[in-house]
Amino acid sequence: MTSLTVDGVTVAFGELQALTDVSFTLSEGTVTGLIGPNGAGKTTLLDVVSGYVRAKAGKVRIGDVPVDDLPPHRRAALGVGRTFQSMELFDDLSVAENLLVAAESSGTGSSGAQSAAAAVGLPADDQRPAAALSHGERKRLAIARAMAARPRVLLLDEPAAGLDAGERRELAALMAQVAAAGTSVLLVDHDLGLVLDICDRVVVLDFGRVIADGTPDEIREDPAVTAAYVGVTQRTHPAARPTASSATPALAVTGLAAGYGGAPVVTDVDLFVGAGEIVALLGPNGAGKTTTLLAVSGAVPRVCGDIRVLGRAPHGGAFRQARRGVAHVLQDQRVFAGLTAQENLRLATREQAALEKVLELFPALQPVLRRPAALLSGGEQQMLALARAIVGRPRLLVIDELSLGLSPAVVSELLPTLSRLASEGAAILLAEQHADLALRIADRAYVIVAGRIVMTDTAATLAADPARLASAYLGGDQRL
Q1: For residues 136 and 419, what is the distance between their CA atoms, to the nearest angstrom?
Q2: Is 406 exposed, middle or buried (0-12, 13-18, 19+ CB in 10 A)?
Q3: Rounded CA gap, 192 and 35, in Å?
Q4: Helices and strands per DSSP (H, E), number in the chain
Q5: How many domains does one find in the chain?
Q6: What is the Cα–Cα distance from 242 to 443, expressed in whole angstroms?
Q7: Residue 107 three-state SS
Q8: Are 48 and 12 in contact (CB under 8 A)?
Q9: Pairing between β-strand 263-274 and β-strand 278-282 as defined by DSSP bridges
């Protein structure tokens, strides 16, 4: 029996087409994965199903009931349960109170709260405030709240994020248990190994369109899925720069474990970047790339391991590192919104020659120099952040998701700029979800999945064997 039907759903935010003609169904008692690269439209689709975003076109049905005109609470009453990436708990309420709020509002009462608590392994009478729970316990509480209403369809948005291996196994067992009881589960998660291991079926989105729909084995072998995550690579320069064995160390990371609230997100990470090298850190979204980069810059505390940045431990915060020649481009741009683009650049240099040189590299910024950074497009802000990092002539440049917010054409124009910086002696660590882009200019690459380095090789070798790279992204072979 079909519990959810999504038929031709299209969503646009202004000129941005977030979803286009998306269609699939969920069968009762099954676990279906919804995956795709960052920005593919996964959370937007969950928002459409749960009623937080209205579709421009298309239909959604719970069972045989059309719900397109119903608000979220009416859809919840029809059997739609939902978790969120941010969990959305009542932190000042106890575990028991969080569960009772969900159960009472849905009409299942104390029995609903008790059964949901038992399913996730939490005491139904737990009086600890939600704010006092560990990350894993908060994840379980979020799922229990959604289950307290005994939903017909359970939408899970990144439930495995930040969980350790044991907690992931518990989550997998829980989803199997929920499905066995007759609930349909739609799982969005960047842990592709988990998704492909536990799901009965997987739907893949890319740029808001369904590019594949099939069994996990079919998805692993689908060329369109491989292309979406890995791409077909053509290198834009010969590998003529120093190799890792001969280059002067700019960054050396050994045995790194780092995370948030004392819970490691990445474990046993080793990587090396030599002067004049471009090294790519690849992996699906949520794999631990950003956490690794933040640990390198000192913004995320180490649990254990050793980091040497330009020969020293990263003490003194980002300001001191910047004074020593380290520049970090964050994936959320972090420009000074109240300053103009030119003023943002002036913060990094007062040398007119340096400013003119960087504008030659980023000609698209020239017409918007006097515009407040807050009024720039996302792509322009990304270029401004990169230009501000480069204008200071860094010895080590760390970039998190170069392609975020930029068109493929603009990214292609930026790649030679990074190659030029490396040829002048700068060391570059480039974290990028889209392997195709990074491997065009990288000398070497590391692949990180679920917080661990699972593969390392020259960029040329990885580019020549996209199937091997895809196997790591999609939870298959993880040979070093």
Answers
A1: 42
A2: buried
A3: 8
A4: 18, 19
A5: 2
A6: 9
A7: coil
A8: no
A9: unpaired
User: CA–CA separation, 261 vs 298, rounded Å?
Assistant: 15
Residue pLDDT, tens place only, 152-209: 999 999 888 767 778 888 889 989 988 998 999 999 987 788 899 999 999 999 989 9
Looking at residue 480, what is its pLDDT?
34
Q: Which residues contact 153 (CB under 8 A, 6 or more apart)?
A: 3, 4, 26, 49, 62, 79, 80, 81, 183, 184, 185, 186
pLDDT tens digit sequence for 284-301: 777 889 899 988 887 888
DSSP reduced 3-state for 398: strand
What is the value of pTM for the model shown?
0.70
Report residue 156 as tokens: 């899970």
Q: Cα–chain-centroid distance for residue 2?
A: 31
Those residues whose C-beta lies under 8 Å from the C-beta of residue 329, and which sit 6 or more positions away, are 385, 386, 389, 397, 398, 399, 400, 402
Give the residue from 281, 278, 277, 275 showing the smallest Cα distance to 296: 281
Place of tokens 């802000």: 381
User: What is the tens place of the pLDDT at every residue in 374-427?
Assistant: 888 767 787 888 888 888 888 999 998 887 666 666 777 778 888 888 998 999
Same domain, 348 and 448: yes
Helix (H, G, I), strand (E, B) or coil at 37: coil
Cα separation, 422 vs 416, whole angstroms: 10
- In angstroms, what CA-CA distances link 60 with 26, 191, 200, 274, 408? 12, 27, 21, 53, 33
Q: Which residue has the tokens 């030599």?
A: 274
Q: Which domain holds residue 62?
A: 2-229
* Amino acid at position 328, single letter: H
Which band of pLDDT confidence, cut at 50, 70 and 90, is reported for residue 317? low
Task: Tell me, yes or no, whether 73 and 205 share the same domain.
Answer: yes
| Residue position matching structure tokens 């106890």 | 94
The residue type found at 289 is K
CATH, residue 198: 3.40.50.300
AA identity, residue 81? G
- Does residue 441 sit in helix, strand or coil? coil
Residue of 265, 276, 343, 292 whose CA lies nearest to 446: 292
Question: In the predicted model, what is the mean pLDDT of the chain?
Answer: 85
**Packed helices 109-120 and 95-106: angle between N→C axes, nearest 10 degrees:** 130
The structure tokens 């979406």 sit at 228
Same domain flag for 199 and 170: yes
